[in-house]
Amino acid sequence: MSAHAADVQLARLCAAGDERAWETFVREYRPLLYRAADALDRTGGAREVADSLYAELYGIKDAGGARQSLFRYYQGRSSLATWLRAVLAQRYVDRVRVQRRTEPLPEETDGTAAPPADPDRDRYVALVRTALARAVSRLDPRDRLRLASYYVQELTLAEIGRLLRESEASASRHLARTRRDIRADVERQLREESRLNDEQIAACLASVVEDPGPLDMKQVIYD
Amino acid sequence: MTELPDRLLRDALHDSASKTPSSMCVDADALAAWADGTMAGADRVAFEIHAAGCARCQALMAAMARTEPPPIEPAWWRRPFYSWMMPLAVATAAIIIVVFLAIPERRGPALPGPAVTETSRDASASVAPPHAEKTAPSAAAPSASPAAPPSAAGAGVPDSRRDRATTLTRNERPQDESKDAAGRPAAKSERAARDAEPAAAQPPVPAPASPLASTASAPPSAAVAGAVSPPAAARETASPGGAGGGGLGATAAAQVPAAGTRANADAARSFDARAGAEALHLKAVAANPLLIVSPVRESQWRIVNGAVEHTDDGGATWRPQALGTDVPVRAGSAPAARVCWLAGARGLVLLTTDAATWRRIGFPESVDLVAIDATDAVHATVTTADGRRFSTADGGQTWTH
Fold first, then answer.
1. Which pLDDT tens digit goes with each residue over B217-253?
2. Which of B57, B66, B169, B368 to mutate to test the interface with A (most CBs of A within 10 A)?
3. Whole-number Å distance between alpha carbons of B273 and A105
4. Facing residue for B10 by CB, picked from A88, A152, A155
5. ipTM reported for the complex surpasses 0.90
């Protein structure tokens, strides 16, 4: 707790409406808040969130005329800088998620328009997808989290390493191992549960290699 | 061997994560503590387990990673670490020089030379380049990563993708830190927090009375609306077991005593019941190997980090046993010297009748098994993570609920 005593003190003074404390906060933390917002959304979409957060930190007058500042929730469990980033992250992520839910879904483009392909191929793709879903659900939570951070959230190995408190090299090693595990699990399922032979398994895997095009990454990340 | 395409993997991972936030989701306060490394170990594990299956928490974690400011190095002599290190370094250098010069004949003739140069380099490092000395690993990581050799950093990960990712981060990182004095104290205190991490596991701070506190028991949809106030949500995470919603915490208390194995029960007692059941297991398994004692003292098994070892001499030597699966084992029961049943994650049941070879026993559900109790090679009862018990009387061919 003592590590953040100065931060807690600053937050307390700001919450109490101390002008000098607020000036200090603005000088030291506003750039940080805006930088974090820009890192979340380079098109400036998160600035709006940062601005409203900023207003709440200053304090919004409630019905009784007393100013209530968001600062009162900061308890020094982390540094003030990290807390600000976390509040920003939470609001931004939730806002994008709500927006995505209300937006109309994009038209389905693939599938219907595609020429009638090899019926075996469709079956194979479905088999692989099912097996893959099962393999992913069987992963250890930490492995799944690491994999999702890499493939869904598109974090770098260095970022994943920092998040999961492991070195970049071991994050990379674990990712490679998890991929191998999944691959082996999928193949085993195709062999044992779908009763496919080597040739059919090879055909299965070949049929999913063709990439059906990029997906809307924003949907994937914030869904 | 054909690799599975990234796109397919991404889809599968995306589909596997729940899109609905739950009471296990973190609030901003906890997220910040997690990012700063000041969250208690058990809470950390519980959060990571939850996040593995929660799309929102994954996005939150990633947002924290993306917004992490680049480390800003204050002038090296201003860092408290170096200011007290300098006299110490000088003294150490002096001692080493004296030792090596005084008794050179006791070492190989080649040794004193390099040793002395190294020492003097150490000493001069305090006066010359600031990067020569090591800084906190987390702080140094971002600056080091672009230079890291690709072979070491990305074995097995598609190269093009990794390079793209690295370039992307480099471009995305704001580079204006040099002139930005305002950001400096923030980064400094962050680093201080990381350095203090191990000692800083604090009890959760009681949240102040707030008009929003009533949202604590509100359905998870409140979280989606973005209206969750930090203390309200903090209380949610603080007592998921108490919140009748029956999150993971609620099952934790119920299932562990049923586990029936002594080590598990001990771990349960010492463990704060608010962490999730899975976290509890992880902790119980990782903390101390779970011993499975057969009626014959010489023959025992133990579970170490989900793998199994056997001893034939009462524990003097342990040999790892090949189970033919990577699925972690959680519990075991040895009704005879050569007979042992094991149960683990995702419906894993294994049986040996010769204390050497293991056979996978079919189980009707892919549910995590937390305990097993066997009376011989054909009769056994397992307990699932959600507290149900299944028994077999025919060596695992059929199971009855």
1. 434 443 333 333 444 433 333 333 333 333 343 444 4
2. B66
3. 42
4. A152
5. no
